[in-house]
Predict the 3D structure of the following.
Amino acid sequence: MVHTMKRISILVPRGATSLGCIEGSFIGFSRANEVLEKLGRPPLFDVKLVGMTKEPQIYDRLFTVRPDFAIAEVAKTDLIIIPAVNGNMDEVIAANKGFFPWIVEQYKNGAEVASLCVGAFLLAATGLVEGKKCATHWLAQNEFRRMFPNVNLVSEKVITDEKGVYSSGGANSFWNLIMYLIDKYAGREVAIMCAKIYEIEIERDSQAPFVIFSGQKNHDDEPIKEVQSFIESNFHKKITIEQLAAMSAMGRRTFERRFKKATTNTVVEYMQRVKIEAAKKSLETNRKNVNEVMYDVGYTDTKAFRTTFKKITGLSPIDYRNKYN
């Protein structure tokens, strides 16, 4: 059998970026090569840093990253890694648009493409995830939906994999995607050994336990903002949609439509998320039992509370308490 190396191109973006994503990807695939050699197999990954030019990029005023190649020098690659980028996303996309034709051309020629965390904004700007699933950091989900309404954002997911395009959720969950790719290319044994070396939960597939719901208020609909504040102050009471619509002097249908447009949640979802966020805080910090917490946040039906809690956090109330208290 002919042994072919997987050529991996880790992008070195312009502007602010997450050094951890660049270094982590480089180290992850390089360590997989070491594991393969220990198993008596040849190394599989040829890992290179690729910039728009070979000009070094300085991050956080201290750290210089020197690309091995400029994109013009890379005629063929097998996997492109887009690290997380920081700052004003319109500016970040504009600064890095020189990468996009190359990424699209490589994808058309059979390369796969993976974005890490908010690198999803650069991936989406290439057009390659139109109509596909994509994950990003849960903190960035509202801005992502606003900028890329045609992408199917699955904000609860840690990893997406669709037609040779991958994405990962927030922050350190990029490691889960790197392990997933090592598993896919080099096999389960190598991935498990790498995961043990870096102490990564290899099977984690949901960001939900880490999400802090802080109400989507970066919109300009003032009557809806007032309703949001009212819900957040009175979540433990019984509130009806009719009551909230009357408060904002709108008909129910108009109110529901405007609420969804402003917050990306339905009114019911918003009330549930506010209640569950209060329940999470309670489970993290005090010794009340699950039923007491449930009553405190305005639920009377145990089954409904547990179902909603699990849907939003990915864990049962008991499991959540055990993980975070």
User: Anything to note?
Assistant: Residues 6-209 form a domain with the Rossmann fold fold (CATH 3.40.50.880).
